C-alpha cells in the first residue's frame, strides 16, 4: 500500500510557511512586558537558586529551591530550567521580568517551527500541506498561554524544544549511513531526551514517541499486525521484515534500556520517595472509594480534552472548588460515558482497520497527545494539581495534528474541499484573538486573579490570591473580605488563616490573630510560618515564654528560616537579653547574608552597648553583602559622628544619600553633623532639605530653630 494523502489545501512555500508560523506564534506578545505573577514569584523572585546559591546547589534542590530530601519538597527536579533563569540574572545582575517573557515568546516561536518539522517528518513529503496547517493551529492555540505567558512555563517550553530535537535526531539514527553516524545521532537523541527530562519530567515520554514513530511510520506497522502476532496468526510481509530487521529491534531495545536508566536516576534523585500533597491540591486522590476516584480522574481527562477543543474558560489555578468532586449520581457521569464512547471509537478505529491511508498518522497524533500527558494522569502516581493548562503544551501538538487530518477528511468526504480553507482561516483568527486577549490577562496579578473569578468563582485559592494582591497594594479592607471568603469556601485553608491573622495583627486585633494562627497549626502541625507569626503575636502580648517556644517550633520544622531568627532576636531584645539577640541575628545573616534588618539591628545594638569598634566592624562586614543598603552607611556615619570623626562621617552620609536620596533622616542627621562641626550654612541646607521631604519631621524643625537662635546670638 502506498502512503498517500489526497490534499485539497493551498500549497505554501517553505519560506512563507516558516515566516507565517513565526508571525502566528507572536499571538502571545501582548504579555512581553508583564510582571512576575503567581508561581513566578516563588520559583524565581523568592528562589535563591536563581541568583544566590552555588551552581552545584541547583542540582540538589527542587524547582522551588527546596532541598529534594526535605519532606515538604514537591520533588519537581528541573535544574536546567532554573539554570536558564540563573543565566538571565547573571547577564543583567537583576531580575527583569521583561527579559524572561521575551525569551518565553521566542521559545514558543522556535517550538512552533520545530513542531512543523515534526509534522513534516511524520506525514512525509506528500503531507507537508497538512503539516503547515496543523503547525499554524499549534502556534496560536490559547491553551499555551500559561506555558508562554507564565514565566515558570519555561519548563514546558524547554522540555518541548529538546523533545522535538530528540525525535529529529532519532530519525537521523534510522537513516544513518554508517555505524559511526548511527552512534553520534543516537547519542545526540539520548542527550536531548535527558536534557528535556531535566527541564521538565515529561521529557522522558519522548522515548515513547520515538518508538511509535519507528514502528508505525518507518516500519509501516499497524496495531492489528501486533494483535495478529500475539494471537499467533499469520503475519504479513511488513511484520516479518520488522522482526527480521535487526537494526530496528536494536533501536527499540536501546530505547527500553535508556528508559530504565533514566527512570532509575530520576527516582534515585527523589530518594525513591514520592512527594506528599495536601487534599486541597488534588482532592480526587484522597477519596476513599476507588470507583469514585477513577470516575473523577476520568472527568478531569474530559475537561482537558474540552480545553483543547474550546479554550474559552481558562484559569491560572483549577483547585479548591473549581472542579467539584463526583460523589454520587451526577450528570457529569454521562459526559464521561460520551467521552469514552468517542475516544474509544477512535482507539478501536486504529486497532481494527488497516487500509485507511491516514491511519498511521492518526496513531502518531494519538501518541503525541497521550504519552506526554501520562505523567499528569494520576495513573502511575498522584500529582499535585487538579488540572493544569501548561501540561497540555506538548499534547496539544498531537491534538492539532488530529484535528487538521480530521477536518480535512471530513470536508473531502462531503465534497467541500474549498470550505476547509475558510474553516481554517476562521479558526486561526479566533484562536489568535483568544490567545492575544488571554496573554494580556497574565500581565499582572490583579488582571490574572480577576479573570479567574469568571471561570472559578467558588475557587478559594482565587479569592486568596486576590486578597494577597490587595494587601500588597495597601487595600487592607478588600484583602480581609477576600481572605474571609476564601475561608468560607474552604474552612481548612491554612494559608488564608495565616495571612488573615497577619492583617488582624497589624490592625491590633491580637487575640483574633492568635486564634487564627493556632487554628492553622492545629490543621497543619508543620506550618512553620504560622508558628513564627504566632510567636510574633505572643511577643506583642508579653507572653515571652510562649513566644520563644513558638519560634523554636517553627525552626524545628524549618531549620533554614532567617526571618524566624530575626524575630527571635527581637524577642530577646525586648527582654534585654542582648547576647541572645545578637546570636539570633547572626544566625539570620548566616542563613541569609542579605538580611538587611538583621544587620542593621546588630549594628544599632552594638552601638547602644558602647561597642562602637565592634559595631563598625559589623557594618563593614555587612557592606560585603548589601553594599547598596543606605541604612548601613547611615549607621556608620552616626557612629563616626559621635566619635568626632566628622570628615569620615560626612563621606558615609553622602554614600547613604547616593543610595537613598529621599530619606529625610539622612539629611537631618547630616545637618546635625554640620551643626556640631560649626558648618552652619551647610547644616541649614540639610535641615531644609529634610523638611522638604518630610515637613512634619520634628527633629529637623527643632534643630533648624536652634540654628536660627544660635546665629542670632552670634550676631
UniProtKB/TrEMBL annotation:
Gene Ontology MF: a single term: dolichyl-phosphate-mannose-protein mannosyltransferase activity
Gene3D superfamilies in the cross-refs: Tetratricopeptide repeat domain
Native organism: Lasius platythorax
Record-stated family: Belongs to the TMTC family.
Pathway: Protein modification; protein glycosylation
InterPro entries: O-mannosyl-transferase_TMTC, TMTC_DUF1736, TPR-like_helical_dom_sf, TPR_rpt
Classification lineage: Eukaryota, Metazoa, Ecdysozoa, Arthropoda, Hexapoda
Protein name: dolichyl-phosphate-mannose--protein mannosyltransferase
Gene Ontology annotations for the cellular component aspect, listed alphabetically: endoplasmic reticulum; membrane
Amino acid at each position: 500500500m502506498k502512503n498517500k494523502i489526497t490534499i485539497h489545501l493551498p500549497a505554501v512555500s517553505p519560506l512563507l510557511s516558516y515566516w507565517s508560523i513565526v508571525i502566528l506564534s507572536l499571538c502571545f506578545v501582548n504579555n512581553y512586558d508583564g510582571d512576575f505573577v503567581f508561581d513566578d514569584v516563588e520559583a524565581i523572585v523568592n528562589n535563591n537558586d536563581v541568583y544566590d546559591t552555588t551552581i552545584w546547589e541547583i542540582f540538589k534542590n527542587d524547582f522551588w529551591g527546596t532541598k529534594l530530601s526535605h519532606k515538604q519538597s514537591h520533588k519537581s527536579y528541573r535544574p536546567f530550567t532554573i539554570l536558564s533563569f540563573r543565566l538571565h540574572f547573571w547577564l543583567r545582575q537583576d531580575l527583569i521580568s521583561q527579559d524572561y517573557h521575551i525569551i518565553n515568546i521566542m521559545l514558543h516561536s522556535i517550538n512552533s517551527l520545530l513542531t512543523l518539522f515534526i509534522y513534516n517528518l511524520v506525514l512525509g513529503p506528500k503531507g507537508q500541506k497538512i503539516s503547515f496547517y496543523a503547525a499554524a493551529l499549534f502556534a496560536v492555540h490559547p491553551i499555551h498561554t500559561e506555558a508562554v505567558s507564565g514565566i515558570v512555563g519555561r519548563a514546558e517550553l524547554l522540555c518541548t524544544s529538546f523533545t522535538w530535537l530528540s525525535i529529529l535526531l532519532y530519525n537521523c539514527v534510522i537513516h544513518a549511513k554508517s555505524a559511526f553516524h548511527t552512534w553520534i545521532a543516537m547519542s545526540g537523541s539520548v542527550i536531548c531526551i535527558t536534557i528535556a527530562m531535566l527541564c521538565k519530567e515529561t521529557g522522558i515520554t519522548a522515548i515513547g514517541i520515538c518508538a511509535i514513530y519507528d514502528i508505525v511510520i518507518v516500519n509501516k506497522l499497524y496495531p492489528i499486525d501486533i494483535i495478529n502476532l500475539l494471537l499467533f496468526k499469520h503475519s504479513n510481509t511488513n511484520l516479518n521484515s520488522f522482526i527480521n530487521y535487526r537494526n530496528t529491534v536494536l533501536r527499540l531495545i536501546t530505547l527500553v534500556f535508556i528508559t530504565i536508566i533514566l527512570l532509575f536516576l530520576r527516582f534515585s534523585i527523589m530518594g525513591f520517595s514520592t512527594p506528599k500533597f495536601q487534599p486541597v491540591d488534588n482532592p480526587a486522590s484522597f477519596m476513599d472509594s476507588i470507583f469514585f476516584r477513577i470516575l473523577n480522574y476520568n472527568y478531569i481527562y474530559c475537561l482537558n480534552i474540552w480545553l483543547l477543543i474550546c479554550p474559552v474558560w481558562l484559569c491560572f489555578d483549577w483547585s479548591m472548588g473549581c472542579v467539584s468532586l463526583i460523589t454520587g449520581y451526577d450528570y457529569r457521569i454521562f459526559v464521561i460515558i460520551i467521552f469514552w464512547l468517542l475516544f474509544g471509537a477512535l482507539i478501536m478505529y486504529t486497532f481494527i482497520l488497516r487500509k485507511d491511508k491516514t491511519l498511521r498518522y492518526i496513531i502518531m497524533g494519538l501518541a503525541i497527545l497521550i504519552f506526554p500527558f501520562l505523567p499528569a494522569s494520576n495513573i502511575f502516581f498522584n500529582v499535585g494539581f487538579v488540572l493544569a493548562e501548561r501540561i497540555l503544551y506538548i499534547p496539544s501538538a498531537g491534538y492539532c495534528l488530529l484535528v487538521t487530518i480530521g477536518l480535512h477528511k471530513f470536508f473531502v468526504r462531503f465534497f467541500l474541499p474549498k470550505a476547509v480553507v475558510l474553516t481554517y482561516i476562521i479558526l486561526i483568527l479566533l484562536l489568535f484573538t483568544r490567545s492575544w486577549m488571554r496573554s494580556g490577562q497574565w500581565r499582572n496579578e490583579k488582571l490574572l486573579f480577576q479573570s479567574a473569578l469568571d471561570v472559578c468563582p467558588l475557587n478559594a485559592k482565587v479569592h486568596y490570591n486576590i486578597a494577597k494582591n490587595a494587601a500588597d497594594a495597601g487595600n487592607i479592607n478588600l484583602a480581609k473580605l477576600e481572605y474571609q471568603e476564601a475561608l468560607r469556601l474552604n474552612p481548612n485553608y491554612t494559608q488564608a488563616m495565616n495571612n488573615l491573622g497577619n492583617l488582624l495583627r497589624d490592625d491590633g486585633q491580637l487575640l483574633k490573630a492568635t486564634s487564627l494562627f493556632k487554628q492553622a497549626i492545629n490543621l497543619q502541625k508543620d506550618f512553620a510560618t504560622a508558628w513564627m507569626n504566632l510567636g510574633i503575636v505572643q511577643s506583642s502580648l508579653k507572653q515571652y515564654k510562649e513566644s520563644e517556644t513558638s519560634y523554636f517550633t517553627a525552626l524545628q520544622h524549618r531549620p533554614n528560616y532567617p526571618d524566624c531568627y530575626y524575630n527571635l532576636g527581637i524577642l530577646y531584645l525586648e527582654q534585654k537579653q542582648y547576647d541572645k539577640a545578637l546570636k539570633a541575628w547572626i544566625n539570620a545573616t548566616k542563613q541569609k547574608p542579605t538580611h538587611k534588618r538583621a544587620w542593621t539591628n546588630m549594628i544599632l545594638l552594638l552601638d547602644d552597648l558602647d561597642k562602637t569598634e565592634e559595631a563598625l566592624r559589623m557594618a563593614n562586614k555587612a557592606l560585603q553583602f548589601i553594599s547598596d543598603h543606605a541604612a548601613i552607611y547611615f549607621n556608620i556615619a552616626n557612629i563616626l559622628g559621635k566619635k568626632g570623626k566628622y570628615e569620615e562621617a560626612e563621606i558615609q552620609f553622602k554614600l547613604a544619600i547616593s543610595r537613598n536620596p529621599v530619606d529625610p533622616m539622612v539629611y537631618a542627621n547630616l545637618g546635625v553633623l554640620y551643626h556640631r562641626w560649626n558648618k552652619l550654612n551647610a547644616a541649614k541646607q540639610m535641615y531644609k532639605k529634610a523638611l522638604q521631604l518630610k515637613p512634619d519631621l520634628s527633629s529637623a524643625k527643632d534643630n533648624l530653630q536652634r540654628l536660627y537662635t544660635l546665629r542670632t546670638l552670634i550676631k
